[in-house]
Write a structure and sequence with these properties.
The longest helix has 13 residues. It contains eleven helices and nine strands. α6 packs parallel to α11. α4 links the parallel β1 and β2. The protein is of the alpha/beta class.
């Protein structure tokens, strides 16, 4: 349930233009709906400022479509992550207003909100191009929360002059999300060069000894740069959500 929609309903009741019984019918589905196989949390946007996000991995296309349909009834823009192209084709056909973004592997229902809810810009940086899918998941999440997002991709430690070419953009950011696989060194570099909080995202990109992202995760967790926080391997959504929470304007 979109907080703006709830506020509008209450204002209509206060003004006498909406009967109380009609407002109750509009609100009766709070705080969740039962689909049998799932209980979509329609109250989450009111509690946390961001609607429930559907993890597509492990769900059938029909389940993804049903959950997105219920969540979208409240008026919020909603999304499902980790949706492959085959499943997405079924979901987009079944859900009105749905579209598929292939790079972050996300299905989005509803328009992108205005970028006016954050205090400043969130910058998303990747070490390599192979890290872009996870970075795009983070960027999309932050944008759906109403933030301005800038992207700086393929500026890893093998060529640090590429990172320094974007110094002004990073210094102007409120928060920096740094996405890296292999040895995961880039967040430490960014944390050591810029006076900005860094959210580090290890990816599963890399050769054998990278252990599916474990090497990058351990490197980021043991960073000697202050101000670096770490999310789980490939968790672009988590990074984007944390950045949006930290960047949110307060009343």
């Amino acid at each position: 349930m979109d907080p703006d929609r709830v506020k509008a309903l209450l204002e209509e009741v206060q003004a006498g233009s909406l009967p109380v019984d009609e407002a109750l019918r509009a609100l009766r589905e709070l705080p969740f709906r039962s689909l049998g196989f799932a209980h979509p949390d329609t109250h989450r946007h009111l509690r946390t400022g961001f609607p429930e996000v559907v993890l597509g991995q492990g769900k059938t296309p029909e389940q993804i479509a049903a959950i997105l349909t219920e969540l979208a009834r409240g008026g919020s823009t909603v999304m499902a992550t980790r949706v492959d192209a085959t499943a997405a084709a079924h979901v987009v056909a079944a859900v009105s207003g749905a579209r598929y973004l292939s790079v972050p592997r996300a299905v989005v229902v509803g328009p992108l909100p205005p970028a006016e809810r954050g205090r400043g810009t969130i910058v998303v940086v990747t070490a390599g191009t192979s890290d872009v899918p996870v970075a795009e998941e983070a960027a999309l999440t932050a944008e759906l929360a109403g933030n301005r997002v800038e992207r700086i991709y393929d500026v890893g430690v093998a060529g640090l002059h590429r990172l320094l070419a974007h110094r002004d953009t990073i210094e102007a950011a409120e928060i920096v999300i740094v996405v890296a696989g292999m040895e995961g060194a880039l967040p430490s570099v960014v944390g050591g060069l810029f006076a900005r909080p860094v959210i580090a995202v290890p990816t599963s990109v890399g050769y054998g000894a990278s252990l599916g992202g474990l090497a990058a995760l351990m490197s980021m967790l043991t960073s000697c740069s202050a101000g670096v926080a770490v999310v789980n391997i490939d968790n672009g959504f988590g990074a984007g959500h944390i950045a949006a929470q930290l960047n949110r304007k307060r009343p």
